[in-house]
Design goal:
Layout lengths: L7 E4 L9 H16 L3 E6 L11 H11 L9 E2 L4 H13 L3 E4 L28 E4 L8 E5 L3 E5 L1 H4 L3 E3 L7 H11 L4 E5 L6 H11 L5 E5 L23 H14 L13 H11 L18
Parallel strand pairs: 1-2, 2-3, 9-10
Antiparallel strand pairs: 4-5, 5-8, 6-7
Helix pairs in contact: 1-7, 1-8, 5-6
Length: about 300
């Protein structure tokens, strides 16, 4: 990538628990891509779902990033403070008739692969709580973009269904919040895990509808366990260790999982030295588009 001061990237974890190896790989990939481009790197805490976010998890994540030398350039953004911005975006979509209220429950449409759009022309049951959904059949179709690792992507958002923008419990949904925040923070490049690639069509549809700029995308290969499951908090992936020796080893491990082939001797070097090497040698072209398993000694 050509170095540019206009590059703005971000890491946006959900504070449902401490970071694990998979989330370190995502954070490190986004950090290196920004730093190698001479750009800025931001951190956003995606805490719009309080029941999933135990007290103190956000502070733990920020401390972990600092421990690995991953320092951000601007004040941290917390999504729980951003409700007014999300509401304005929703009202714009409602005015455009691209968002509609829906009373249907998941149980009602459980025989369908995706929500069949029953409330598109009016709420089916006005006595029930409502969610707000995106009218995916009316927006940009198909959605086509070039992922920097996985190449040309094409999806029809209508085939993915009318995604929820605001939940029945009045909490904001990820798809709308992430698009609004990326636009307000002027994010130019999104580097994140492959598991979010099929969220991109909805997000690009929303960007077009709201008149936002379109970021570039690089979806990173996932880190998976021995049984092929994505490392995640839900799958009880162990948190990152805190001891300095373990931090150095895990940082080297993350560079290896990002296909950057760091020299073995780098694993014993301080995190600052490892990051200097990694920024100077960052090469997205080395990334391979398949899931990675840590070796037994790395697990």
């Amino acid at each position: 990538m050509t170095a540019t001061a206009s590059y703005r990237g971000r890491f946006a974890p959900t504070p449902s628990g401490p970071l694990h190896l998979g989330s370190l790989v995502a954070a490190l990939g986004s950090y290196l891509d920004a730093r190698a481009a001479g750009g800025q790197w931001l951190v956003r805490i995606e805490d719009i779902d309080p029941p999933r976010c135990p007290d103190g998890a956000d502070c733990t994540i920020l401390q972990q990033l600092e421990r690995f030398g991953l320092y951000w350039d601007e004040a941290v953004c917390w999504q729980h403070t951003r409700s007014d911005a999300y509401q304005r975006a929703l009202e714009q979509l409602i005015t455009q008739r691209l968002a509609y209220p829906c009373s249907c429950s998941r149980k009602q449409w459980q025989d369908f692969d995706v929500y069949p759009g029953w409330c598109r022309d009016g709420v089916r049951d006005a006595t029930k709580p409502i969610a707000w959904r995106l009218r995916s059949d009316l927006g940009q179709r198909p959605v086509v973009w070039q992922d920097r690792l996985f190449g040309r992507q094409q999806f029809d958002p209508a085939a993915l269904g009318d995604v929820v923008l605001k939940r029945k419990d009045a909490l904001w949904a990820y798809q709308l919040a992430v698009v609004v925040d990326d636009a307000d923070q002027a994010i130019t490049d999104i580097v994140r895990g492959y598991d979010l690639l099929d969220n991109t069509p909805w997000q690009r549809q929303l960007q077009a509808a709201l008149g936002y700029a379109t970021p570039r995308y690089l979806h990173l290969p996932l880190v998976v366990s021995a049984d092929g499951q994505k490392l995640s908090k839900q799958n009880l992936a162990p948190p990152l260790a805190d001891a300095p020796d373990a931090v150095r080893r895990q940082l080297h491990q993350a560079l290896t999982l990002l296909d950057q082939a760091p020299p073995a001797t780098l694993a014993s070097e301080p995190v600052d030295t490892q990051l200097q090497w990694a920024i100077a040698h960052w090469s997205p072209e080395r990334l391979t588009p398949h899931a990675h398993r840590p070796t037994p000694e790395e697990s």
